[in-house]
Amino acid sequence: MGSSRLQVLTISRFTLLEALRTRFPWLVLATILLAVLGSLFVKQIAVTETVRQQTAFLAASLRLAAVFIMGLYISSSMVREFNDKGLELLLSLDLPRATYAGGKFLGFSLIALLMVASICLPIAFLAPLPAVLLWGASLAMELWIVCALSLFCIITFTQIMSATSFVLAFYILARSIAAIRLISGSALLDQSSVSHQITVFLVDSFWFLLPSLNVFTQTAWLVNQAEWKMILPIAAQTAIYIGLLVGAALFDFYRKDL
Amino acid sequence: MQQRAFRAVPKSVALILIASLCLQLAWQYQQPRPTAHAEDLVFPPDSKTLQALSLGEPIALAQLMTLYLQAFDNQPGISIPFRDLDYDRVQTWLARILDLDPVGQYPLLMASHIYAQVPDTAKQRQMLEFVYQQFFEDPNRRWPWLAHAAIMAKHRLKDLPLALRYAQAISKYATDPDVPHWASQMPIFILEDMGELESAKILLGGLLVSGIVTDSHEIHLLTERLQELENEEKSSGVPKN
After folding, report:
1. What whole-number distance in Å separates Cα of residue A183 and Cα of residue A234?
2. Buried b (16+ CB within 10 A) or exposed e, A229-239
3. Alpha-carbon gap, residue B126 to B117, rounded angstroms
4. Are the Cβ atoms of A244 and B31 closer than 8 angstroms?
5. Residues in A 45-74 with any Cβ partner in B closer than 8 A
6. pLDDT in tens, B2-46
7. B175 vs B98, B134, B139, B213, CA distance in Å?
8. What ipTM did this prediction achieve?
9. Which of A156, A165, A142, A103 is nearest to A221 (CA)?
10. Predicted structure pTM score
């Protein structure tokens, strides 16, 4: 194994250990417990299709919570490393910046994978296993994009507040851009007005630059039907976008003068 | 934190960034444009749930819901005729939006001017009836939509009794001084069209006597109209009740 690859694995291992030795696992477990309790409440008040309602609530709330926790954890963990001068210490060694960033990304991706496994556990009691596996695979990919995005944001902004705000805004926009594009193209609007054309241009630009997160991790897979072929375009989009975000993060990281 | 020069970035990193960006643009380019499907329009949650979901911003949520509903129309490149939509669902959406924002007029405009324009009589009637039902919640603000519904009932549906029902509702309940007189006078002209000359005459006479009409030009016009009705009645020999 090459030394660079070994360095990546070492950094990812310590990133994973850091998460496991802090209160992060307890936070994830507490969130899952709260969501399960909330879903039981929904089941109690639902008049019909009680299991369907419970599954939909549990899956949708855990998906959002996972994105929020992951984004916030990465930002705070990286900022602590910046503040403790741990980054300077690491980079003073014979360690390329790409190796450090790659190791961090791999570590955070493994954390995301463990998180998805814990989230899928309660959902597996409510939905068919193949559907849960498909949903979980998609959630893992969604979280990997969030990991790469958070890494890019924290390297660029270096502050928790701005990095987390950007991650959340990006996530919401990526989830809703398809609906926004649909609405902006309405034939009921005055298509010839300049303001409309500018709006459509801006929305289309965002559409091209953002990942289509609206097709990821759909609750409908759990409560209706799911097919494994759905995962292929999601995997392709994930690979492309992680490349883009990691590339952007490295570009910015190499320009930083520590 | 200081920034180093661009040349500090390894070429491979810049290459990854540019290649990924190109791939992303190409990927999104080959994705189909998002489209709305008639069957995708599901029933909205009930009003209480929507109030809770609005987080204290019911007007903002109402506007978002309106925009969402509006997306189920003719999209560039594809066509979803409104008649393909489930009108019970459309009506529920419109009602929920009005519940969230009772002062907003948008849902009634959509009901009377957009969804009531489909070439399907049953759906036209459903939308007009929806406007009629909603009118009673706020007659002085919602009368224009019912007036449009009355005109549609008269000219499109050729259903004069229905048009008269709508017109009479405006005349009776939209009593704000800002409501124009032509709106209050609609029943007269519909009754005239129905051949109910005597009823139209009584209504017109009553309007003139009531003192509601104060504009001299309008009084003159209505007096002339009353005279014409009386002449018409005499010449046709319509018996008085």
Report:
1. 24
2. ebbeebeebbe
3. 11
4. no
5. none
6. 788 888 888 999 999 999 999 999 999 888 877 666 666 788 888
7. 22, 16, 8, 13
8. 0.83
9. A142
10. 0.70
